[in-house]
Amino acid sequence: YTFSGGNVGIGTTSPYAKLSVVGEIVGAYFTATSSTASTFPYASTTALTISGNAYFPGSGIWNTSGNIGIGTTSPYAKLSIHANDGETNTTLFSIASSTGSATTSLFAVLNSGNIGVGTLSPARKFSVFGTSANPQLRVSYDATNYSELTVSATGDLTLSATGGDIYALEENLRICAGGACPSDPSGFSGNGNILA
Q: CB burial class (10 A; 0-12, 13-18, 19+) of residue 185?
């Protein structure tokens, strides 16, 4: 080490602070005992590298300017989360229940663009899981006027509307078996028809 002008340097002969270390530092804890904030100035292209878990009790993480990237060194938004190269259907963002294991997913976004509510593996662009008897989806005009969709344990779909009516405005309704509808029968034309 080097002692110079009141500063101590480890791995450097020109320490610029009370303690300057050039090289890797390994320690169980880093504790700031001053009432002022502790800063990590730029040493190279990165200011702070953490291997493993990081915990910031009561303080949070903030950046007064620029963007924050997770999985990327070139974030394009205030918060950018990227999957690693080659990863597919990777959960980029998830909100779980308050249990310690966090195994119950409330909301998830995959790098495929699929969004899941109640599931970590949404199969479509927007997937909603709910195994209770309550409807899985509600579309509302306000708190008392809405329509709901319910999928049962056998896959049946129920539509309900508080207004009492479900409209298909000038559209044809086709009810088909076998996974596909046949060609339009003779005389079937226009709108407002039901084809079964």
A: exposed
